[in-house]
Amino acid sequence: MDDRPTLTPCHCLAVRQAARQVTQLYDRHLAPTGLRATQFALLSTLARLGSLAVHELAAHLVMDRTATGRALRPLERDGLVRIAPGRDARTRALSLTQAGLARLEAARPLWEQAQSAFESDYGAAEADRLRRALGRVVGRDATEEGAAA
Questions:
Q1: Inter-helix orientation angle 11-30/37-49, to 10°
Q2: Residues 58-68: pLDDT tens digits?
Q3: What domains can be seen in the chain, in order of their start residue?
């Protein structure tokens, strides 16, 4: 029996299946650093944008605020992210620590390998078109080019 998932007419399920598949690829590549793909994205976003409130980081990553908070816990525990009081009593400010920056830099070549592996399997031009199409889905200008993740 073939264990591959069947092609679904449901756009939501198809995107979720693809997201899980791609996340597993990146997780395998990032494993030597102890980071998962979501953690890499959190660290790289903080490195690129600087100190952010939890809700701001969540908005940039298109994540629920509580899920973002849960994802931050191990990064704070490991000393990769600092969580301090924010602009007011209701917010917390997040920043990348030196250890977090070092871990991110150690992970970046592995992330680049994952990028290359995906492009090799899927096709570089197709991968670029897919990324741009998904950017439109989340309402971002697909021509915006940012740093890793």
A1: 80
A2: 999 999 999 99
A3: 11-137 (1.10.10.10)
